[in-house]
Amino acid sequence: MPQAAPLHDTVALARLQDDLAIAQAAELHWWAVAATIADAVRHQAHQLHDTPARDALQRLADAADIPDCPRTGDRGQLLAEVLRERARQDARFGQQDYPHTDPASVELCAELTEDQRRINANPAERTWTSVLLEEVYEAGAETDSARARTELVQVAAVALAAAEAIDRTTADAAPIPYQLTERTQP
């Protein structure tokens, strides 16, 4: 008999449904939606002890999975990849509620922000990594939740811009499969 999903799985699936609704509303690529569904089904299959049900869900996930996704530099596609990664994280770790920062980190991040600003002031030294680090350090230096949230949105926007730049410079390359890392694989 199939086991009931743990509470964090139920929360993750509810978030997945929200993410899929956003993806559909934004008319994101069908492959990203299919791959996200496949990931969620595969995770649920892994939780079952009932072998026939687990095997059936695994076959369903395999049939829906689209591993090689063309990278076109399309912002909607990149956002779909981000939603897919968030679904993987939720499926693996459940809801995570950590404090935003601590006093020692605030001081260190404030110093590192100034270092990155000096680097970024010189166009010859500026890279996407240096710009992204400046935004991350600014977020870490914030003690006000609303301002920290604004900075984190800026972090996400810079990361998206950097990924778009990579896609533009590798537009002629063959499709690259979305890579699971040991840290995020459910």
Written description of the protein model:
With 186 residues, the chain is mainly alpha-helical. The chain folds into two domains: 7-97, no CATH class; 103-168, no CATH class. The chain is 68% helix and 2% strand. The protein has seven helices and two strands, in the order H-H-H-E-H-H-H-H-E. Strands 1-2 form a two-stranded antiparallel sheet. Helix 1 packs antiparallel against helix 4 and helix 2 (30-47) runs antiparallel to helix 3. The longest helix is centred in the last third of the chain and has 25 residues, at 145-169. The two termini are 22 Å apart. The model is unreliable at 1-6, 66-70 and 180-186 (pLDDT under 50).
Radius of gyration: 19 Å
User: CA-to-CA gap between the ends?
Assistant: 22 Å
| Biggest sheet layout | 2 strands, antiparallel
Structure classification: mainly alpha
- How does the overall form come out from the CA principal axes? elongated
Share of residues in strands: under 5%
Domain module count: 2
Number of strands: 2
Q: Give the number of helices.
A: 7
The percent range for helix content is 55-70%
Low-confidence stretches: 1-6, 66-70, 180-186
Secondary-structure element series? HHHEHHHHE
Mean pLDDT: 75
Q: Give the spatial strand order of the biggest sheet.
A: 1-2
